[in-house]
Amino acid sequence: MVSPRHPVDVLLLLRRDDQVLLALRDGTGYADGQWNLPSGKLEFGEDAVAGIIREAYEEIGITLAPAHLRLATTIHHRSSAEHARIGLAFAATFDPGAHGEPLNAEPHKCAKIAWFPAGRLPPDTYPYSAACVRAMLDTTPFVLSGWDD
């Protein structure tokens, strides 16, 4: 039997009041045209907290510190029968004085960023991201996503 190899993703649930920040993917070949949480894969040798801090800066130009973050949920997501991944979704309450204003720092991968009510995400939100937001709202520590078929 072959042991699975799951990439580890870090996802940011940046909250402002009842809203969450999403990015519209574009030009990547993966989930283009869908809204996604700021996120990415851990790099070799990188811990999860360092990874989400790096991804937040690279994708939306904000500066986070470990004290700004809390682990909101863990997601085991399957996008196809051959591909699954583990996601660690960190929540942070947006503080413009501490974080700076979010911006589209990767226009070659992202068409735009926008705030949406966490309880009413756009219909074209990528299922992985939507599962993270639902788990955060429900305070569910662990979620399976995409495994129901």
TrEMBL record:
Listed SUPFAM superfamilies: Nudix (SSF55811)
Names of required cofactors: Mg(2+)
Keywords: Hydrolase
Stored InterPro entries: NUDIX_hydrolase-like_dom_sf, NUDIX_hydrolase_CS, NUDIX_hydrolase_dom
Domain Nudix hydrolase: 4-138
PANTHER family assigned: ADP-RIBOSE PYROPHOSPHATASE YJHB-RELATED, GDP-MANNOSE MANNOSYL HYDROLASE
The protein's name in its UniProt record: Nudix hydrolase domain-containing protein
Organism: Actinoplanes palleronii
